[in-house]
Amino acid sequence: MAGKTMSDASSSNFGGAERGESVVYDCRRRKSSCGYCKSGSHGSITHGLWAPDNLNVDDYQDLLDRGWRRSGCYLYKPEMERTCCPSYTIRLKASNFVPSKDQLRVSRRFQRFLDGELEHDKPVEITEVSSASEGSSFALNGKSHSVEKNSLSLKNNEKEEDHFMLHLSDEINDAVSLYTKSSDLPRNIQFPRASVKRVSHAKKKVLVQGSKDLVYSSNVAFQLSASIRRAQVGEMKDGNLSSSESNTAENGFIPKIVAEKLVSYLSQVNEVSGFSIKACNGHINFYSDKGEAFLPKSSDKATISQETAKAGSKDSSRDKNPKCSLQKRRKFEIRLKRSSFDPVEYALYKSYQLLVHNDSPDRISEASYRNFLVDTPLNFVPSTGDCTVPPCGFGSFHQQYLIDGKLVAVGVVDILPRCLSSKYLFWDPDYAFLSLGKYSALQEIEWVKQNQAHCATLQYYYLGYYIHNCGKMKYKATYCPSELLCPLRYTWVPFHAAKPLLDQKSYVVLSDFSLQQNGESSALDQVPNDMELEHDTDYLEEPDNDNMDEDGEMAEDYSDESDEDLGSESRSLAPEIDDGDVTNILIGIGNSRMRYNDIKEAIFPSRSYVENQLVRYKRVVGKELSERIVYTLQ
């Protein structure tokens, strides 16, 4: 019987017995201090499991879909109706992902850096002596230097203008994206990237009256028109487009018309403060409303004084152009390796924790790093070549990001039968200007898309937990269209439908929305008012890093709770376990695997205690998993 039950337990929907069995120890309910609301009390309440050696990837996938996560070999699930900060599992179907304007900018900025078109924003060690007036000097290494100040000011002005022109280029690129999506264009077009340049005084002299306020211009309409014509020629050669159709289409894609269209879309993308935008004979021109000396910052569109801008313009011919000193194209690599300790990764992790999260050195150790991000209970599953496993296999991995051979970021991920689950990311603080957290998420989504061809079931990107009132979590909802896991029925609810509910209350049975839409009653309608748990705490903490994942080290100040503390509201919110039947739970005693029904008489003295534990265990993992995962009696 033992052999039969073990075989049954090891099988799953995807891999079968060859993927190994799952063995867990029940850590029961745990309380700890909350790292999000910083309440100071033990308000974070979770149920924990310990899986030191074996966890089947299929079982862990199913645990994820019931709200579980892992930190090293420790598995935990928030008790949603009790914990101070209810944490909803959030995921995204990779094939449906639509990048936002901000996410597109992150990708373009990263590419410009690789192409050598963007400088490395290294911090400048400058301390301002006084900010009371614009004429205050700066202290460099403890000394005041007016000459260095003036030179620095000019260089900063040039750099600021360079960044602003890149900002304008981004705005045009967004307009190009809108234009191409709304137009009937040929296929296989190589879309150009917009470039904005300052208009020289010599060119202004040959232009029409009123051009004195013309500051910047872009000729991307000519490039886009040429790309469309080349694609049309290709379609004519392939017989997909007739000559008459080509002539008709070409008339609508001449540079003048394309520029006018782009200008109209620019007004939809964003307002460029202080400038008016006009199309002129195929060019997109930016006219300053306050004369050519007006220059907003690319970050906040604030103005710079006329005197500073004129000084920068006057001396730009003498000073070295920043673009001339830009680095050559950089080599970028992404390496996916199985989870293991790497001293270079550990050094990067220490730097990240110290400088980004302000951790004290005594809190960072090799042992805690291993426990958190290296150790994994997941059984590795190699590729089978039959479109059921991706080439890298299933298991825990570290995705390394290298620029010119230097490790700049590491993403810790689990690759499972239905998803890539993002666990944590740490990066080099010197590269913070590249928004590596956002960029890595885009890369991980793209990885899922690419590997669907090798594993048909691999479709989703899991971003971990989402806490609606926590600023650190806001960025996760920007990856659209995302879904949140209902904490009661374990169905997925679109974020746009869940958001209005979460705006009102932090713990919500999200699937109630769809039930109400269908006119059905909710299970919570039967719960007395005095049993509803309110979570009205305001989370005042601002995120110290909007790219940080939620999974941190598990606090060590856990305290067990007695079985008597299992509240009646928890039982009322678990409809799938009405009878408390635990007879089919798979029990591990030594090397033996048996159903609880076969051994309960043998442990009669402690039977009541054991059965109470099994009821709680079955409630948090579900009936199917409780009969598949080996529950080890201690």
Automatic annotation (TrEMBL):
One of its GO terms (cellular component) is cytoplasm. GO terms for molecular function: arginyl-tRNA--protein transferase activity. The keyword Acyltransferase applies. InterPro entries: Acyl_CoA_acyltransferase, Arg-tRNA-P_Trfase_1_euk, N-end_Aminoacyl_Trfase, N-end_Aminoacyl_Trfase_C, N-end_Aminoacyl_Trfase_N. Keywords: Acyltransferase, Transferase, Ubl conjugation pathway. Pfam families: ATE_C, ATE_N. Its EC number is 2.3.2.8. Residues 32-103 form the N-end aminoacyl transferase N-terminal domain. It comes from the Eukaryota. It is an enzyme of class 2 (transferase). Residues 312-322 have a biased composition (Basic and acidic residues). Residues 345-486 form the N-end rule aminoacyl transferase C-terminal domain. Residues 305-324, 539-575 are annotated as: Disordered. Residues 539-567 have a biased composition (Acidic residues). It catalyses: an N-terminal L-alpha-aminoacyl-[protein] + L-arginyl-tRNA(Arg) = an N-terminal L-arginyl-L-aminoacyl-[protein] + tRNA(Arg) + H(+). Involved in the post-translational conjugation of arginine to the N-terminal aspartate or glutamate of a protein. This arginylation is required for degradation of the protein via the ubiquitin pathway. Belongs to the R-transferase family. This is Arginyl-tRNA--protein transferase. It comes from Cucurbita maxima. The gene is LOC111489095.
